[in-house]
Amino acid sequence: MARGRAAYEYTEAEDKSMRLGFLLIAAGLLSLLGLGCCWLRPALQERGGGGAANCTVLAVRQSGERFACTFWCGAACRGTARYPCLQVLVRTSRSAAPALLHEDERQLRTNPKCSYIPPCARDDQENSENVTYKQKYWKEKVGSQPFTCYFNQHLRPDDVMLKRTHDETVLLHCFLWPLVTFLVGVLIVALTACARSLAARAEAIQRKKH
């Protein structure tokens, strides 16, 4: 009676392990599929046709346009302020034509006309001061010193980025953790199947002895 009960508990534990393994396998596959369709594919499209280059500042100016931004002053409080448009024109080592510099791909999509979007403050004067500080930085601190920038000839040939939103580390993690989840699930299923097979063989040998 006790022997039969112990065998039943062991079989139930095996079944739970198999269900956990299959759940991890499905989660890993769905994560890879979801990240590939919703995030990884656009990231690779942004990186496709692009590369790194050396950039040199040609001109730093305020275009005279002002753009709206949204500031938050509480959980249910927000408003609209404005900031001036700063443009940093650079020359790349890949092309003699001037290009407009942007912080990253996200800033480029938010406002393709400007090189910098300040943290939105309620006071327009504070936004203007932040933009002026950034303008002085590019004129006085950087000046004619070359720096690394990134471009994409296919998507935005007239724009360059100071940094990439989707770098190699992010893309690696995008693949790594779903793959680890999938492999752990496969390992659990394989070990459980092996344990069940060994237990069945041991039981068959025991029966032959008796």
TrEMBL record:
Keywords: Glycoprotein, Ion channel, Ion transport, Membrane, Transmembrane, Transmembrane helix, Transport. One of its GO terms (molecular function) is potassium channel regulator activity. The chain crosses the membrane at residues 20-40, 170-191. It comes from Penelope pileata. The lineage of its organism: Eukaryota, Metazoa, Chordata, Craniata, Vertebrata. This is KCMB4 protein. It is a multi-pass membrane protein. One of its GO terms (cellular component) is voltage-gated potassium channel complex. The keyword Repeat does not apply. One of its GO terms (biological process) is detection of calcium ion. It is found in: Membrane.
